[in-house]
Each structure stands twice: as C-alpha cells, then as structure tokens.
C-alpha cells in the first residue's frame, strides 16, 4: 500500500486559506465583485468562462479568492465585519455551518433573472444551487470488472486495486458513510467502515489526499475508487480507461450552492455574478470539456452523465448534514490516525 500526501497546489491553497499567504480585496475603480472559488478545476473554469461572461453581461469585474469550503468559513469568521469576499461557494456541510453561524445575508432569488430556469427547490432564503454532484464508484474496465456496490470494494479483485481517501471532502465523507451503511452502520455511525477497513488495509493499493486521487488513478497506482462524475469525465477526456458505476444502493447526489456574505461590500454585483453563473450559456459551457460540471439550469441538455435529466437526482441518496457536521472532524482525525498512517 502506498500513502500519498496532499499535492503542492492544494498545499498552497490551504496555506493561503490559513493565512500563510495574504488574501486581500481589490479596490474597484468601477463595478466589481469578489468571490470565493474552489482551487483547481473550479478556479480554472470560472476564470475562463464566468469572468468574461460577467464582464460582457454586466460590465462587472470579477476577483476570485481560491479557498476550500471550510477555509472560506474560517476566513469570514476571522474577518468579522470586513469579509474578504462577497460570495461563498459551498458544499452541503459547510453550507449548514454558514447558516448556523450567521455568515450569510438573506437571499432574494427574485433578483435573479435566470431563477425560473432552475428546478423547483434549488433556491431558498440562504442561497442558490449552481452545480450538482453525483458520487459513485469509478473503475478501470481493462483492469477490473465492474463492482456492483460498496461492499465489493473490500473484496478481491477490487480491494488490492482500491484507492482510498478520507473525510476531508464531501464526496469522501458521503462515500464512507454509504460504505459503513452496507456493513450495518448509519449516517452517524461509521464504526463498521473502520472495522472492515482494518481487515483489508494491508491489501489496499493506495491511500491519498483528495487532490491526489485522480493522478493516482491515471498513473495506474489504483484502478478503483469512490469519486464524482466530474473526475471520471475529466480523466476519460485525457485518454484514461475509466467508467462510472452507480452502486446498487444508489448513487449519491449533493448540490454546490452560492451565498452572499454577511456584510458583503458589493451585494448588487454579487447577485449579478450569481445570475451569470446559472445562466444557460454559462452552465452549458461549464458542462463541456475540460470542466464537466453538472449544470443546475434545466434548459441545458445533459451530456455524458449518468442521468437523462436533473429530476432523476431526486431519487439518488442524500444526506442530512446537520447530523454529519458535528461528527466529521472526529472522523477526519480518526481516518488520518488509523488509515492514512
């Protein structure tokens, strides 16, 4: 088994988020907005697609601060009354934290001209969905047969080709929760996962940080892993032999949302930015190579995805993050101590 540390780009982003690299807001000569963005593919895609689209549509300049979700929460809490950005982008767990900690302005979806193009229920008083995620199992069809479900990952021929990552990401957390459930656990009890992984850990191909997993798969250091469809389509576009499987207990769905920061300096431009993000043309562009985002806009025709329309996602497995959040930090610590050692 090989253990791989976090890659350099993720380290730099984390260092910036922790205060190792200064993040400052620009002083706008005219209209502008500052938004947090996930490092990596989100940052690249938004700079190439959303930034120019916002400028064309509203003559608003966009400054992006690359920060992972939990780092966004930490930055705003530390800044108090002078938030470093106007817009959050968050997965379900950090979204719940932001609501509970009072970090968002109340959201008025009527200010979005494109709100009618989203399926019902994707906007509320706190924010709006800008992308969907579907999580399941990825495998190399030339190396291993298709697994049927989560339990197969702990058996041969899959376990000796398995790539593991922990609870640091949303997709990692929900995947491990679902693994625990097939062995008798629940949304709040992942003890069966740790019991079963200890039995097979010496056979596991690799354990790595979330950012390292696509490279490990591409390099052939593992041939099966839990991940999202975006990673699968990205790797396939690079010529990697990879397929996506919906586990027999169901694929997992969650949504990425945007929120206006409490005390935002540019709230009007924040709405223009979010409205641009959910527009049909931008969402369609984000879905194409090399980005492969699952759109939130129902007018965008889905391509190379495990569903025909967004409504199918209502049948996928969802999780209550108000229950997961209080336990997640302890799970991360335990995984790092007992699995990624």
Q: Which segments are poorly predicted (pLDDT under 50) over 5 or more consecutive residues?
A: 4-22
Based on the coordinates given, report the CATH architecture of the largest domain. 3-Layer(aba) Sandwich
Number of helices: 11
How much of the polypeptide forms β-strand, as a percent range?
A: 15-25%
The overall number of domains is 2
Structural commentary:
The chain is an alpha/beta fold and 341 residues long. It folds into two domains: 28-132 and 254-315, D-Maltodextrin-Binding Protein, domain 2, CATH 3.40.190; 135-253 and 320-339, 3-Layer(aba) Sandwich (D-Maltodextrin-Binding Protein, domain 2). It has eleven helices and ten strands. Helix 2 (41-58) links the parallel strand 2 and strand 3. The longest helix is centred in the N-terminal third of the chain and has 18 residues, at 41-58. The radius of gyration is 20 Å and the shape is globular.
Question: What topology does this entry show?
Answer:
Layout: E1 2-4, H1 8-18, E2 32-37, H2 41-58, E3 61-66, H3 69-79, E4 87-90, H4 92-100, E5 128-139, E6 162-164, H5 170-182, H6 191-200, E7 206-208, H7 213-218, E8 224-228, H8 229-237, E9 243-245, E10 252-260, H9 267-277, H10 280-287, H11 321-338
Parallel strand pairs: 1-7, 2-3, 6-7, 6-8
Antiparallel strand pairs: 4-10, 5-8, 5-9, 5-10
Helix pairs in contact: 2-9, 4-11, 5-6
